[in-house]
Every structure is written in structure tokens, then in C-alpha cells.
Write a structure and sequence with these properties.
Shape: globular
CATH class of the largest domain: Alpha Beta
Strand order of the largest sheet: 4-12-11-10-9-5-6
Largest sheet: 7 strands, mixed
Number of domains: 2
Oligomer: single chain
Number of helices: 13
Length: about 450
């Protein structure tokens, strides 16, 4: 009765402008580890963990303890003043970047990923003399503020609101499963680089003035592995080729690690898998395990030093609060103390093997791929290729209904929908998921697919 009353009030008083109503609204009352619980105590195994924001498990004891302690010492302070954990967290991230890429840089914090994307646009425009044109990928997602939506490829996020500045020029992402047939993944990666490079062949390709040796574009915004686009993993040679072209024509590489950062793919930053150095890197989500809105960016010193990005260049009242930065600092310490790379890659291999086994039993599973614990399963018609959004929609609804069974116990399953055709399950389980929970995931998915195919 209480849930029904709450849902009625939600329908009357809450905005529908967020993403709750993509499916039937569901109320949860408790969480722990890999599970959410509804008001009846039914456990829901969560395989998307708040779009990878809760990478270290719900109610993580270590991170919760730090938050509780901070509440009793310095829970808040105005953003024009300093506190130790902000400085220590910035130093830790910047020193890691220096060790990996040999570059000095600085950290700028904000309250969310979209806001940090907007901050990066200021940095890039400032560095490139006010140029406002950017390259970005088809299928790319960088947020829904007016600035971030301009470089997000989905028109539906801009349709009602017009443009704040110039819309990005969107380049095809090397999506091998839906690319031209007859090419290996590496051949397709090289082909995509060549298609981008031809834009600079002459002034008539529209982006390059060979006489002035200047591009009209300031930066290329990339997700090394596409998030909302469906966890698409590019060919391993692609980004090296892309960076070669960008460096040749003086275009900055801005890497969005908001969803894939903090060992989601087995590295602190997913771009590390591809052997290139970013000019700007944006992070968020898992930095505080979903318990505080904190995001930020790292940029090369020449882009962000106080002479070019002076005090007051940007501001947010709640950026880098002590509650957020102390959590972020503890997250970074935790990552430094444990071999997350080996752990995540081993669990990812187990999860991927389970998905491949499911694919043998269900021809509706088209492409299966993964890097670390960022994995995908593309739901299709029985031909294994034609997108089947309706099947995945049914799976999501059945999972949230909480009527699945395992060993006589009622359970639910939380999935996320992504992909160009909204037919891809994007898996982002807790990095602390157990092997037993991975086995349970496959059993529940098998049951779920079977039920959804029955309609």
C-alpha cells in the first residue's frame, strides 16, 4: 500500500524529465554489495551499478566509514576556501598522470560529469583562440547540459532547446559488429582513421586551411569505450592512428572517462589500453562510489596553469566539498593498495565466458564483447544481427518486476539499456562482484531471456 501511495504521489508531484520513466518506476529501500532491495525485501542483483557510479559495491564499508567520519569533522566549507583532501586528491591524480604520460598537469573539480565537460570546453576554446567547433563520435555521450549536449550525438537531447554554441561534427565510431563486412577489426580500425584523415586532404574537404595551416576544429571529444552508445570497444590500433592525425593538425584530444574510469576496464583510465596520451581527461561517477556528486578534469599544464585559466574562470558552489574529496581520496588509496587490474580482468574473463555460453543457447544474442568489467550483449532477432529493442525492453521489465527464481528464492535483476538501437545490455557490475554472483548473473539472464522470448 505504501509503495502504491508513493508512486501515485510521484506521478503527481515529480518531474518526468529525468530517466526514471524509461521503464515502469521502481522504488528501492535498501542496498548492499551487488544488491538493491525493494520494500518487500526482494533482492535485485544489479548488473549496471548506477551506470558504473557504484563500482565498489553498495554500502562499501571502507568508503562509508570515511564519509561518516568526515560528517563529524568538516562536513562542509565554502568553495572559495581550502581543505586538505581537495589538495591531496588533486595531487594524487596529477602525479599518476605524470608517471604514466610524463606530463605536468592540474586538476579542476566540479559537481558532475556534464559540468566538468562544460569546464573542459572552456579550457579548449581558451587554448584555441575561442574556436567553438569540436569533433565527436556518433554514438558518443558526454552529458545533457547545454554545452555537453552539443557534443553528444543524440539530437533528441537538443531538439527542444536549440544550441548553445556550435554543434559538434560527428564522426563514425569504429563499431566493427555493424561496420562493413569483410574486414578484420584491425583493418576496420585503420579504415576509420583513413576516412577521418581524408577530411584534411584539401581545403575543400571543409575542416582545414592548408595556406594558414589551421583547422577550424579545436578538439576531438572521445569515449575510449562508448558508454550509452552500447559499450562499443574499438579496434586496438584505432586511437593511435587517430592521435597521429590530431597531432599533425593541431587538434586536442579530450578523453571522457566519466563512465569507464577507475578500473571499470581493468585500468585506472580506459585510454591506457590504447597507448595514447590525452590533452584533457574528464572523470567522475565512481570517484566517490556514487555517494557524493564530484567530478573533475585533468589537463596539461599549458592548458590550465593560472596564467591561462585564472581564478574565477568557472565556479560551482558545491564543487569539491570535503565529503566528496575525502571519499575520492580514499577511493584512490584503495585502488593503490589492491591489484584491481588483475582482479577486474580475471572477473571480466569469467563474465565474458558466461555471456558467450549464453550466446550459444540463445541465437538472439548477437555481438558479445568486453574489456574488464565493461561488457555488452547485443539483443537481436533470431538472425543474430537485426536489432531487437522489444525483446530487451521485455527483459528489463521482467527483471524489475522481481519475479525471477533461483534455488526457490524470489529475485530481480537490474539491467541497463544502451546502444544505437537501444538493443544492447551494457553490463557494469560491481568490481567486487564474486564468482558466485557472476554464476548467478548467468542463471538469471538465461531465465530472463527465456521468459522474454515467450512474450
Amino acid at each position: 500500500m505504501r509503495e502504491a501511495a508513493l508512486l501515485a504521489d510521484e506521478a503527481r508531484y515529480c518531474s518526468f524529465g529525468d530517466t526514471v520513466h524509461y521503464s515502469d518506476p521502481k522504488i528501492f529501500t535498501r542496498c548492499e554489495g551487488s544488491y538493491l532491495y525493494d520494500g518487500e525485501g526482494t533482492p535485485f542483483l544489479d548488473l549496471q551499478m548506477w551506470y558504473s557510479a557504484v563500482s565498489f559495491g553498495y554500502a562499501n564499508p571502507r568508503l562509508n566509514a570515511v564519509l561518516k567520519q568526515q560528517i563529524d569533522t568538516l562536513p562542509q566549507v565554502a568553495s572559495q576556501y581550502l581543505h586538505p583532501s581537495k589538495i591531496e586528491l588533486a595531487k594524487m591524480i596529477a602525479e599518476d598522470a605524470k608517471k604514466k604520460w610524463g606530463l605536468d598537469g592540474r586538476i579542476h573539480f566540479n559537481v558532475g560529469g556534464s559540468q566538468s565537460v562544460d569546464d573542459s570546453l572552456k579550457l579548449v576554446r581558451n587554448a584555441k583562440g575561442g574556436k567553438s567547433l569540436m569533433f565527436a563520435f556518433e554514438g558518443g555521450y558526454h552529458g545533457r547540459t547545454l554545452g555537453a549536449s552539443a557534443i553528444t550525438s543524440s539530437y533528441r537531447y537538443r531538439r527542444r532547446y536549440g544550441h548553445f554554441g556550435d554543434r559538434a561534427h560527428f564522426i563514425p565510431f569504429p563499431y566493427h559488429f555493424r561496420g562493413p563486412k569483410g574486414m578484420s577489426k584491425e583493418e576496420y580500425g585503420e579504415y576509420c582513421v583513413q576516412q577521418f584523415e581524408r577530411l584534411f586532404e584539401s581545403e575543400y574537404n571543409g575542416v582545414w586551411d592548408p595556406k594558414a595551416e589551421q583547422s577550424e576544429f579545436a578538439a576531438f571529444y572521445v569515449e575510449p569505450i562508448q558508454g550509452t552508445g552500447g559499450y562499443v570497444i574499438p579496434p586496438p590500433n584505432f586511437f593511435k592512428g587517430l592521435k597521429r592525425v590530431l597531432d599533425q593538425y593541431g587538434i586536442l584530444l579530450v578523453v571522457d572517462e566519466i563512465q569507464m574510469g577507475f578500473y571499470r576496464t581493468g585500468k585506472l583510465w580506459s585510454i591506457e589500453h590504447f597507448g595514447v596520451t590525452p590533452d584533457v581527461l574528464i572523470f567522475g561517477k565512481a570517484l566517490t562510489n556514487g555517494m557524493n556528486p564530484l567530478a573533475g578534469l585533468w589537463a596539461r599544464e599549458e592548458l590550465i596553469n593560472p596564467q591561462v585559466f585564472p581564478p574565477g574562470s568557472t565556479h560551482s558552489t558545491f564543487a569539491s566539498t570535503p565529503l566528496g574529496t575525502v571519499l575520492g581520496l580514499e577511493t584512490m588509496r584503495m585502488l593503490a593498495e589492491t591489484d584491481y587490474e588483475s582482479m577486474v580482468m580475471r572477473k571480466g574473463e569469467l563474465f565474458l565466458a558466461g555471456l558467450l555460453d549464453l550466446q550459444k543457447r540463445h541465437p538472439e544474442i548477437g555481438d558479445v564483447d568486453g574489456l574488464g568489467l565493461a561488457l555488452r550483449a547485443e539483443m537481436c532477432e533470431a538472425d543474430g544481427f537485426t536489432p531487437n529493442k522489444r525483446l530487451l525492453d521485455r527483459m528489463v521489465d521482467i527483471g524489475l518486476a522481481g519475479g525471477l527464481e533461483h534455488k526457490g528464492k524470489r529475485m530481480g535483476l537490474v539491467l541497463d539499456v544502451g546502444g544505437y538501437y537501444k538493443n544492447v545490455i551494457t553490463f557494469a557490475p560491481s568490481l567486487h562482484i564474486s564468482e558466485e554472483e557472476i554464476e548467478l548473473s548467468m542463471a538469471l539472464l538465461d531465465q530472463l531471456i527465456t521468459l522474454a522470448k515467450r512474450g
